[in-house]
Amino acid sequence: MKKAALTFADGKLVMIELEPEKEPQASALRSIYGVEFVPRFSGWAVAVSPQDYERHEGKLYPKTYPSVYSAVAVTDKVFVGALIGNTGMGAALRGSLGVPDSSGMPGKVVRLQIISRTLENKDGADALK
Questions:
Q1: 19: which residues sit within 8 A by CB, 6+ positions away?
Q2: How many Cβ atoms from other residues are within 10 Å of residue 70's Cβ?
Q3: How far, in whole angstroms, is CA 4 from its chain's centroid?
Q4: Quick one: pLDDT band at residue 39, thresholds 50, 70, 90?
Q5: Going by C-beta distance under 8 Å and a sequence separation of 6 or more, which residues neighbour residue 60?
Q6: Cα first-last separation, the chain
Q7: Which of 21, 84, 91, 94 has the highest CB neighbour count under 10 A?
Q8: pLDDT value at position 19?
Q9: Are 65 and 105 in contact (CB under 8 A)?
Q10: Which DSSP category does 3 fall into?
Q11: DSSP string of 4-23?
């Protein structure tokens, strides 16, 4: 790892932040962690370029992936967030030409955060029940 940071609250480990020296492919996240990662995009990116995204059954799908995006996985105990850099000539050419990206989640993992769900704030979660 290039960098590893541990965060504690009340004497318990609640977050691990990692910056890998050798950045793994984003498409490998599922096999590395054994959980499904879902790509997430900033509201700003969607607002500025709505033509680059499609919605199906309430989910947002990119036609081409932006140069930076995130992916999130949720388990019973942790949230796992990945910051993904989708740079390089292939990504730039696909984006500029509007060619759809069919490679799953392209790019490399720049940073990972593993966050304990004990930090989750559930106040008001039952308000809509």
A1: 1, 2, 3, 4, 110, 111, 112
A2: 18
A3: 18
A4: very high
A5: 41, 46, 53, 54
A6: 44
A7: 84
A8: 98
A9: yes
A10: E
A11: EEEEEETTEEEEEEEE-SSP
Is 98's pLDDT higher than 90?
A: no
The token pair that represents 18 in the structure block:
């990692």
* H helical segments located in 7-127: 29-33, 43-48, 89-97
Assigned token pair, 91: 């990504």
pLDDT attached to residue 129:
66
DSSP secondary structure code for residue 24 in this structure? P
Burial of 63 (0-12, 13-18, 19+ CB in 10 A): middle
Say if CB 67 and CB 85 are below 8 A apart: yes
Instruction: Compute the residue count for the chain.
Output: 129
Q: Where are the beta strands (DSSP E) in 26-126?
A: 38-40, 53-56, 59-62, 68-74, 78-85, 108-116
> What's the token pair of residue 6?
């541990």
Distance CA 18, CA 16 (A): 7
Residue 3: HSE in the Cβ half-sphere, 13 Å Cα cutoff: 7
